[in-house]
Specification:
Blueprint lengths: L9 E3 L2 H6 L3 H8 L7 E7 L5 E4 L3 E3 L7 H8 L10 E3 L6 E6 L5 E7 L3 E3 L6 H5 L4 E4 L6 H15 L4 E5 L19 E4 L6 H12 L3 E7 L2 H12 L3 E6 L4 H5 L11 E5 L2 H7 L4 E5 L7 E7 L2 E5 L2 H9 L7 E5 L5 E5 L21 H4 L22 H13 L14 E6 L3 H11 L3 E3 L8 E5 H4 L3 H9 L4 E4 L4 H12 L6 H4 L12 H20 L3 E2 L5 H13 L3 E5 L6 E5 L2
Parallel strand pairs: 9-13, 9-16, 10-11, 10-12, 12-13, 20-21, 20-22, 22-23
Antiparallel strand pairs: 1-8, 2-3, 2-7, 3-4, 5-6, 6-7, 14-15, 16-17, 17-18, 18-19, 24-26, 25-26
Helix pairs in contact: 6-7, 13-16, 18-19
Length: 577
């Protein structure tokens, strides 16, 4: 066999055998048709005009409707229909699919043209040679099966490998007991019942010692599991699956195992701070079954994920992978371009995110307050203590600043509200100009914002959140202040200073919050008195819960504190380091 480049293709379609099975008047109308080489399929439906579908158009073959006699004429000239209602013509690649009524009678036929296109894998010939497992994705009719057939021939004939094709519907190697010459020296195993394809896959490995297994249309969980079993035995896999892109497989629970499987993981506090995410995140469960994924967007333009594990990890973190795109120019040469990483949507300048995604209890860091005097050019800030500077540097290295949502998703953040005032939510987003979109479809959401009192009795909502791998953020009340604080928390935006918080009066008056006031008091005491002046400071009396939060804050500054006094006047004392 002469080696062909990506631009040199040799087509073998045996079209005359398909036209011969049609009624004479229909076959003759296509024999000399000007678009004969672009014919994709012929559709015969009872009581309707017969159609011929080409790559770019569709036209009727006759004004007379299809009759039962015409369908019976065609059925008699093809092979036996299998359990998946598919048949073929002996030693051809054509596929005839049947539509039946409730009584089991055939009332429609789809006659699909099968072509052996030699040279179709020039775009990925180097990947085929590498010995890695390859998964082909793409819409129906884009040429997945044609590419699969050519890959099997190249591996068997050009590289001398032992190739076994699992041919469920006889579409790869044709109908009949003798396979079509298009597969070369590759061997073909037929599947008697489509639901048993996974068993035939395992049987091929155990009985026939293949180096390569070729599978078309992996569509069930058992088939995905069988594919993983084969890959773990060191056999190269070449297969196709339902889905246009790799992220379609991630969202498909049946086929997700092909790219490693997806699981929800709860991180420890330290790891969540290091990653800058919430404690519940999505991660890949295992190494992918296929090393390489090929998205066949068009017949001459394919997107290659040569590191499937890396692409899946980036998609789970809300980032866009950087695959390579391969196409063929006018001279038949392969052009390879690399996608540029997509920069996440930036936040407005007035709401620049804090260095960490969550509040101070998760981040372990409060930003120092800059006094007006410190803003002058001549002002010199006191040097920080060595311990605190080292601690700060460690935090900066461990927690990169990412303009992303709570689970790494790109902004704008899509929120699904539950029992939360939509009017207040829209008003807060509009007034503060936040990069947030309210969605009514939970499938499009990044996070659920719910009212705490309603969440307790809604096990169905928690179940939906678990299925869709969505975090739930609960707020206490439907007040504007609670909604604004919840939105700021989800976006990782710093809590406003007292002067900035006055802006919230634009849409709702709010009272002073004891928790924020107490934490702000402790922070100012540490950064303006304890550290620079090395003096002990006593804070105002607080409740036990708020004092505990103040103690945690002081620990992040690597200082000591203690509570003293009797309730209700018990308060905190902060000591210099």
């Amino acid at each position: 066999m002469v080696e062909l480049t990506a631009g040199q293709r040799q087509v073998t379609d045996n079209l005359y055998q398909l036209l011969a099975m049609l009624p004479p008047n229909l076959g003759q109308s296509l024999t000399h048709h000007p678009q004969r080489e672009e014919l994709l399929e012929i559709v015969l439906d009872l009581g309707r005009s017969p159609e011929a579908r080409f790559i770019h158009s569709t036209e009727y073959l006759s004004e007379l409707p299809v009759t039962r006699e015409m369908i019976h004429y065609c059925v008699q000239r093809v092979g036996q229909f299998s359990g998946d209602n598919r048949a073929g013509i002996e030693r051809t690649l054509h596929r005839i699919s049947a539509i039946r009524n409730r009584q089991g009678d055939i009332i429609g036929l789809t006659c699909r043209v099968g072509r052996a296109v030699f040279g179709t894998i020039g775009l990925i010939r180097d990947l085929v040679e590498s010995g890695q497992s390859i998964l082909l994705l793409g819409r129906p009719g884009v040429g997945k099966t044609t590419a699969l057939r050519e890959i099997a021939r190249v591996l068997a004939d050009d590289f001398g490998k032992r190739v076994v094709i699992i041919d469920t519907s006889n579409e790869i190697a044709g109908d009949g007991d003798i396979p079509h010459p298009a597969i070369g020296r590759a061997r073909r195993m037929q599947v008697a019942h489509p639901e048993n394809q996974h068993q035939v896959m395992i049987e091929a490995v155990e009985n026939h010692m293949p180096q390569v297994i070729v599978i078309d249309e992996i569509g069930t969980e058992l088939e995905a599991l069988a594919a993983r079993t084969i890959a773990e035995r060191g056999v190269q896999l070449i297969g196709t699956a339902h889905g246009n892109q790799i992220d379609n497989l991630i969202k498909n629970p049946t086929l997700a195992d092909l790219v490693g499987g997806i699981q929800s993981v709860t991180l420890g506090d330290d790891e969540a701070r290091r990653r800058g995410t919430q404690k519940s995140v999505l991660e890949r469960k295992a190494p992918p079954t296929f090393d390489i994924a090929v998205e066949m967007l068009e017949r001459q333009r394919w997107v290659i994920h040569d590191q499937v594990a890396e692409s899946v990890d980036m998609l789970l973190r809300g980032r866009a992978p950087t695959p390579q795109t391969r196409s063929v120019d006018e001279n038949g040469a392969v052009i390879i371009t690399h996608s540029e990483p997509i920069t996440p949507h930036p936040l407005p300048s007035e709401f620049k995110p804090a260095p960490f995604r969550n509040n101070w209890r998760d981040s372990g860091r409060m930003l120092p307050t800059i006094s007006p005097a410190a803003m002058s050019p001549t002002a010199i800030a006191p040097p920080p203590s060595p311990d605190r500077a080292d601690f700060q540097n460690l935090l900066d290295m461990a927690m990169p600043n990412l303009d992303m949502g709570p689970n790494g998703e790109e902004l704008p953040l899509h929120i699904y509200p539950y029992a939360v005032s939509r009017h207040h939510l829209e008003q807060a987003i509009h007034t503060l100009k936040l990069p947030v979109v309210i969605t009514k479809d939970i499938d499009h959401a990044d996070v659920i914002l719910a009212l705490r009192s309603h969440l307790k009795s809604q096990s169905k909502l928690r179940h939906l959140a678990h299925i869709h791998h969505l975090p739930i953020h609960a707020i206490k009340t439907n007040s504007m202040a609670q909604i604004v604080r919840g939105l700021r928390h989800l976006l990782g935006i710093e809590e406003p200073s007292p002067a900035e918080s006055a802006d919230l009066s634009l849409f709702a008056p709010t009272g002073q919050d004891d928790e924020l006031e107490a934490l702000e008091e402790a922070r100012l005491a540490v950064e303006q008195i304890v550290i620079p002046k090395r003096q002990a400071v006593e804070l105002l009396p607080r409740s036990a819960n708020i004092r505990r939060m103040q103690h945690e804050l002081i620990e992040h500054y690597q200082l000591n504190s203690s509570s003293f006094g009797e309730e209700p006047n018990r308060r905190l004392r902060i000591y210099p380091g």
